[in-house]
Amino acid sequence: MSAPLDLIPTTLERIRQDLVGLKMPRALEALDAIVRRLEQGEIGALEAIDTLLSEELSLRENSRIKTGLRMARLSTIKTLSGFDFTFQPSLDRDRILTLAQLGFVARCEVVHFLGPPGTGKSHLATALGVEAVKAGKSVYFCTLADLIVDEIGYLPVVSGGGNLIFQLVNARYEKGAMILTSNRGFAEWGEVFGDAVVATALLDRLLHHAVVVQIEGSSYRLRQHAELMPEHVRSKALITPPNPAHVSRPRGRPPKNGPEPLRT
Ligand code: ADP
Ligand code: MG
Question: How crowded is residue 47: how many other Cβ atoms within 10 Å of its Cβ?
Fold first, then answer.
């Protein structure tokens, strides 16, 4: 039995239906224009297929990244291209660009950004998070007060909180990468967590496979008001270098001009 002629879909109509069936809305949208260019001899058949598929693919990429960024709950979006490395000369740009290649994620390492307020710790942590989302990794951001590890040192950890954080860190240890930012040196963690035993156990795991980036500069937030700030705030060195004798060497190079906090 054959269908009446006027009910047989044309090839173009069938392609449309297929694109709907395959859930390719962007390709469907672009189809007519691509066919027109094909008919006018502007592009060949291969290029037409290529354009159709890449239109769809870029839509999917964009929405994947958008969803990934939403799930990551980054407080604001920051990028490496938006970071002014000339403002932070103690920071080794190549070292940060190497981190952005995300080898540390594959190796389940912990990246620590240490430094005084406003020196770009959260910016860099966020920018690495954005790179990871783009690369298809799942990322989750939150502050220590919300639970974990941005801004260690700003708020006292509630009693028993150190134990909870230890459980999280232990669960991720050698299984998933983490990025931590803190304005306090490792030596002060006992005080931050209100428990020296927990702090030592935490650091034991957090520094085993670690990259420590110490930023020794002044606050980017205060750059226009530097002359109004007292000297001790304006200048660096708020961070006491840590002395974790039990710690293995971090991978990667130490900052060019800064102290080498872990090579004690
Ligand atoms: P921290 O976490 O070290 O306290 P942030 O990363 O939150 O500091 O930086 C404070 C603000 O200054 C943010 O808006 C950040 O984007 C911006 N900022 C910091 N350092 C730089 C820099 N070197 N280049 C561009 N923006 C910067
Ligand atoms: Mg911060």
Answer: 13
Whether the CB-CB separation of 165 and 202 falls below 8 Å is answered with yes
pTM of the full structure: 0.78
Q: What angle do CA 82, 83, 88 make, to 5 degrees?
A: 160
Tell me the pLDDT band of 234, cut-offs 50, 70 and 90. Answer: low
Q: Which ligand is nearest to the CA of 219?
A: 1
- Give per-residue pLDDT as tens, 178-201: 999 999 999 999 988 888 999 999
Q: What's phi and psi for 63, nearest 5 deg?
A: -75, -30
Q: Are 231 and 196 in contact (CB under 8 A)?
A: no
Cα(195)–Cα(37) distance, rounded to whole angstroms? 70
User: Ligand 1: which of 88, 92, 123, 183 to mutate, judged by most atoms within 8 Å of the beta carbon?
Assistant: 123
Q: 123 C-alpha vs ligand 1 centroid, how far in Å?
A: 5
Runs of H (alpha helix) within the chain: 11-21, 25-39, 45-72, 93-99, 103-106, 121-134, 161-172, 189-193, 196-206, 231-234
Considering the chain, what percentage of its residues have pLDDT values greater than 90?
Answer: 67
